[in-house]
Design goal:
The complex is a heterodimer of chains A (116) and B (111). By secondary structure, chain A is an all-beta fold. Chain A is built from no helices and 11 strands. In chain A, the strands form 2 sheets. In chain A, strands 2, 4, 5, 6, 9, 10 and 11 form a 7-stranded mixed beta sheet that branches. In chain A, strands 1-3-8-7 form a 4-stranded antiparallel beta sheet, with no helix packed on it. Chain B is 0% helix and 45% strand. Chain B contains no helices and 9 strands. Classes of the chains: A mainly beta (116), B mainly beta (111).
Chain lengths: 116, 111
């Protein structure tokens, strides 16, 4: 299957600082990428949908000014958690849609964020 | 909201076939059935998808009922590494159509 890579795999940051997570589609061009968040023992919750070259569409209840999403190229989307607080600590997962095989969506490995 | 219903958990003996059911009685004509699994602390892994015909790949088989209201994912010879949460999701394969995750089935393979 197609490969989606995230970086970093885990990060610890101080409260009040910002942290950026990168999502790359390694062997295909992804016009659409999705960002999810998962708290322990819960399912994945969609945060936003990003299309290359345009503004992201955020799900209800997700603060767009806090979770900045940039999708500047067909192979890279970034999620920046601004002014992070301990309650933002979570597992963040990106995914990307291919243009073939029924527009299948593939996921990255996920990024663990801990805010201290 | 998730459009599928799955059992919360299942056990399967190692080496046996694992059959995971999914109900999707409100599926639309243009929606596919996708299966993903999530092993602890990893991103979801794509397994298989189908529209109305049965599908098979190197990982699993997908059996969709004729009325498309339910399906079964079959792992033919389960191994310990198949222990994971399995998600059944219906989605139209267009543009920004997203994957909405329910609670999935926690499959435990017993040695």
């Amino acid at each position: 299957g197609a490969v989606v890579s995230q970086h970093p795999s885990w990060v610890i940051c101080k409260s009040g600082t910002s942290v950026k997570i990168e999502c790359r589609s390694l062997d295909f061009q992804a016009t659409t990428m999705f960002w999810y968040r998962q708290f322990p023992k819960q399912s994945l919750m969609l945060m936003a949908t990003s299309n290359e070259g345009s503004k992201a569409t955020y799900e209800q209840g997700v603060e767009k000014d806090k979770f900045l999403i940039n999708h500047a190229s067909l192979t890279l989307s970034t999620l920046t958690v601004t002014s992070a607080h301990p309650e933002d600590s979570s597992f963040y997962i990106c995914s990307a849609r291919t243009g073939s095989s029924g527009n299948t969506i593939y996921f990255g490995e996920g990024s663990w964020l801990t805010v201290v | 909201d998730a459009k599928t219903t799955q059992p919360t958990s299942m056990d399967c003996a190692e080496g046996r076939a694992a059959n995971l059911p999914c109900n999707h009685s409100t599926i639309s004509g243009n929606e596919y059935v996708y299966w993903y699994r999530q092993i602890h602390s990893q991103g979801p892994q794509y397994i298989i998808h189908g529209l109305k015909n049965n599908e098979t790949n190197e990982m699993a088989s997908l059996i969709i009922t004729e009325d498309r209201k339910s399906s079964t994912l079959i792992l033919p010879h389960a191994t310990l590494r198949d222990t994971a949460v399995y998600y059944c999701i219906v989605r139209a394969p267009f543009g920004n159509e997203k994957l909405t995750f329910g609670t999935g089935t926690r499959l435990t393979i017993i040695p």
